[in-house]
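Final report, closing paragraph on structural work. Over the funding period we assembled a curated collection of sequence-structure pairs, and we close with a single example.
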Amino acid sequence: MSVENKYDVIVLGAGIAGVSAASHLLRKGRRVALVDRRPAGEETSHGNLGVIERDGFVPITFPTDLSAILRYGLNRETEMHYHFGAMLKMLPWLWSLKKASSPERVAKFAQTIAGVEAGAVGAHRELAKAAGAEHYFRDTGWVRFFREESSFTALKTHLDFSDTYGASYEVLTPDELNEIEPHIAPVFHRAVWWKDTQSVSSPGKVTKAYADSFSAGGGDFLIGDALGLAQKTNGGWSVETDAGRATAKDVVVALGPWSMDVLKPLGYRFPFAVKRGYHAHFAPRGNQTLSRPIVDSDFGYAVSPMEQGIRLTTGIEFADRDAAPSPVQLERATRVARKVFPLGEKIDEPVWMGWRPCFPDSLPIIDRAPKHKGLWLDFGHGHVGFTLGPITGQLMAEMVCGEKPFTDPAPYSATRF
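Its predicted structure, as stored:
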């Protein structure tokens, strides 16, 4: 007979969202089990740009310009790539994305995200201090550059929101950017340096440090398969782990792109999509340096200094989650990036592919599941999971514990669709 270990809360998923929620619940005096099939921070939380945004006021939107739609349709662009069969299956999601792209919906998004991004750096820093992980953090901001005057002009809405919600930035000419990043080629019209954004040198190690701190504080990290989650007949939930059966009154699903694998058998249907992305690391040429993340906005890729080297991350790939990797974007982005920053040899490691769990309105679900007592949802953070993981983990913990949330949770409701 399997050993039964009783907890107050089980958190499924040891990415940045799950680790953060588990850490906040533990701090509130709950006995918590954090369950994953792998060690912490080894999926999507490992391979991102490691940015904690303060300026993410404009979500991913559906293109309104016919020429842009036609360009994407040819499937030759650097910032977006698709598998035809996957795109056909995603048509309902894309239609929802189009509806969420109206100016009114974007303004509502900006207002909502401002309420959590204002505290995102502080929430990270609090966990980092407890975990002894502060040395990974950089307060150098990040830079987005725009090759054409038209693409910079299109940024006006973004800058207006930054002014409204107090995100500090500076518009730079190529010469001015050269003063802080001397090895970026002047191939652009203007750049914007968002100074309140922070970044880390290894998002995977930061997530692992938070998980280690959770364990050191009395939480239990267990290896187990979330697909075995079962509702007990007398109330509560259970899941099998390497340490026996874990049971609890409450369970938090924070499985990112795998969340629906658990929720669909329970009868849940959400407009949910998984966007794939890739990264590779390069040695800098000679003694060339990079001090902060740099985004080439016109081509949709980014480079950032990491412990492993210069990390290049790609834009969006629409493909079945479990389809074989097709890193054509990485090849295209590498060719473009070499003309911007002196990338040296590619570091010999397998090409990394990750998954961004996305709802069409670019907001996660942070809520009680509407059909099951004791089931909580904390997933769908899209392109800003590393940014929002700790702050939405705080919100999730407050809701599970019946406390007054620090911000209005209504925009993150599971019933909003």
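Residues 385-400 form the longest helix (16 residues). The chain has 13 helices and 22 strands. We thank the funder for supporting this effort.
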